[in-house]
Design a protein that fits this description.
One of its GO terms (molecular function) is pantothenate kinase activity. Keywords: ATP-binding, Coenzyme A biosynthesis, Cytoplasm, Kinase, Metal-binding, Nucleotide-binding, Potassium, Transferase. Its cofactor is K(+); NH4(+). By secondary structure, the chain is an alpha/beta fold. It is built from 9 helices and 12 strands. The strands form 3 sheets. It has a 5-stranded mixed beta sheet with strand order 3-2-1-4-5, with helices on both faces. Strands 10-9-8-11-12 form a 5-stranded mixed beta sheet, sandwiched between helices. A hairpin with a 5-residue loop joins strand 9 and strand 10 (about 135-145). Helix 2 crosses helix 7 and helix 3 (about 145-150) packs across helix 5 (about 175-205). It is globular and about 60 Å long. About 40% of the residues are buried. Bound molecules: adenosine-5'-diphosphate, ligand PAZ and potassium ion (K). The site of adenosine-5'-diphosphate (ADP) has 12 residues, from helix 3.
Length: about 280
C-alpha cells in the first residue's frame, strides 16, 4: 500500500492506495498535528510500503511526521516546490517559497489540462495560473471561508456554511448575524475568484480551464460563473505525477481526475469584465 498525505494548515488528509491495482482503499482526515497515532489517526503502517507527502503546516509538523514514518516505512517521498517540474516553470521569484500544495495542484492541473487555473479552497483560498506551454505565472492568496469568518469575531464561528447550500441562497442579504456573515464571506470569496480568473485570462489573452480543490471546493463551485471542474484529489495527483509508483501512475493516469472543462471564449470573458466595469 502507498500512503499519501496532504497536510494543510487545518486538516491533514490521508489516503491509502493499492500499489498493484492503483485503487484507493481508504481515506480520512484529522486536525493537523505534530504527533500521529498509526492505527488510529493514520492507517497501520505495517501495510504501507511507501509514503508521499505534501505539507504546508509548520516545519515541526513535517519533521515529526517524517521522523515517525522513516522509522517504519522503507520509502518516504516529500514533495518540494522547485524551479521547474514536469514541463512547468515555477513563477515565484524564490520558487521554494511557493506553497507546495499550490505547486502540486498546478502540476496536476497542467498534466490534466495543459494551461489551467488551479484553485485550492482550504484554510486559505489560492488561485494559480499555468499558461499553455507550462509557464506558471504565480497567483493569489486570500483567507478561506473559515478564516474570514473567524476574523470577524462575531461569535458565529461554529455555524459553518452548509456545504449543500445553493449559490442563490448564499448571495441574498442575510437577515441574522450568522447569515449576514456567511453570505458576506461567500460573496467575497466567489467574487474574488471570478474576477481574478477573468482579469488574468484577459491579460494573457487565453481562456483557461479552471480546476477546484480543497475542503470548500464544492460550495465555492456553485458561485463560479465559468465552466470548471471540482477535483478533490488534485494535490494527491501532483504527488502521483512527481513520484509515480504504480503502473497506472507511470502511464500518466491521475486518480480521480475529472473531465477537462472547456473554457468559454475569450470574447465572452472580456464581455463579462466590460459589463461588470460598467455597473
Ligand atoms: N468537515 C470539515 N471539517 C473541517 N473543515 C471543513 C470541513 N468541511 C469543510 N471544511 C472547510 O474546509 C477547510 C479546510 O479545507 P482543507 O482543504 O482541508 O484545508 P487545509 O488544506 O488548509 O487544511 C476549512 O477551513 C473549512 O472551511
Ligand atoms: C497559502 C497557503 C497557506 C495555503 O495553505 P492551505 O490553505 O492549503 O492550508 C500555503 O500554500 C502556504 O503556506 N504557502 C506558502 C506561501 C506562498 O505560497 O506564497
Ligand atoms: K489552500
Amino acid at each position: 500500500m502507498i500512503l499519501d498525505l496532504d497536510i494543510g494548515n487545518t486538516l491533514s488528509k490521508w489516503r491509502l492506495k493499492d500499489a498493484d491495482s492503483s485503487e484507493i482503499r481508504s481515506r480520512g482526515a484529522v486536525w493537523t498535528r505534530e504527533e500521529w497515532r498509526p492505527g488510529s489517526d493514520i492507517p497501520d503502517l505495517d501495510v504501507v510500503e511507501a509514503v508521499r507527502i505534501s505539507s504546508v503546516a509548520r516545519k515541526v509538523v513535517l519533521e515529526e511526521t517524517v521522523t515517525l514514518l522513516r522509522r517504519r516505512v522503507g520509502a518516504v517521498h516529500v514533495a518540494r516546490s522547485t524551479p521547474e517540474a514536469l514541463g512547468v516553470t515555477n513563477g515565484y521569484e524564490e520558487p521554494g517559497r511557493l506553497g507546495v500544495d499550490r505547486w502540486m495542484g498546478a502540476l496536476a492541473g497542467y498534466q490534466l489540462a495543459g494551461g489551467c487555473c488551479s484553485v485550492d479552497c482550504g484554510s486559505a483560498i489560492t488561485v494559480d495560473f499555468v499558461l499553455p506551454g507550462g509557464r506558471h505565472l504565480g497567483g493569489y492568496i486570500l483567507p478561506g471561508l473559515r478564516l474570514m469568518k473567524e476574523s470577524l469575531k462575531l461569535g458565529t464561528r461554529n455555524v459553518a456554511i452548509d456545504p449543500d447550500s445553493e449559490a442563490e441562497e448564499l448571495l441574498v442579504p442575510g437577515t441574522r448575524t450568522v447569515e449576514a456573515v456567511n453570505h458576506g464571506i461567500y460573496m467575497a470569496a466567489v467574487s474574488a475568484v471570478n474576477r481574478i480568473y477573468s482579469e488574468v485570462c484577459d491579460r494573457e489573452g487565453v481562456p483557461l480551464p479552471m480546476l477546484l480543490t480543497g475542503g470548500d471546493a464544492r460550495v465555492i463551485s456553485r458561485g463560479i460563473q465559468v465552466p470548471h471542474a471540482v477535483w478533490p484529489d488534485m494535490v494527491y495527483a501532483g504527488l502521483e505525477a512527481c513520484f509515480p509508483l504504480t503502473a497506472a501512475e507511470r502511464a500518466g493516469k491521475l486518480s480521480g481526475a475529472p473531465g477537462v472543462p472547456s473554457p468559454v471564449s475569450l470574447e465572452k470573458i472580456r464581455a463579462g469584465l466590460a459589463f461588470s466595469m460598467l455597473l
